[in-house]
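Memo to structure team: turn this sequence into structure tokens by end of day. - J.P.
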Amino acid sequence: MEFVEVIIIEDNSCRLGNGGDMITVEKLREMGCNVDEGLERCFGNEEMYLRLVGMIPGDANFDGLKAAIEQDDIKQAFEHAHALKGVLGNLSLTSMYDTAVTITELLRAETVMDYRPLLDELLGKRDELLKMLED
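Reply from structure team:
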């Protein structure tokens, strides 16, 4: 897992990333995240919140979900999707969370379907977050 640097800037806001513009709570808001709710869960600690957000793209449950879906293992896919739903919900990464909820509930019901479009949507949003961290 790759770690990124959190920088506290003069106005006491935080940026997260490896250089460039880096990610900020404002960029997360633009992405559709409910940052205020996420910060509340982190006791208002912006640095902690951004560190946790920075860990999301490296979460092994993304790869586990993809592998389980490719193997048509609905029970294992559910476990990975449910774990992602919890983490994304706790950080209020709303657009990713909404997709994870859809996948989780379909898997919970053991719905036989092609999950690849939903998986691609979730992984695309993860990649969007990763790109924000790398910029």
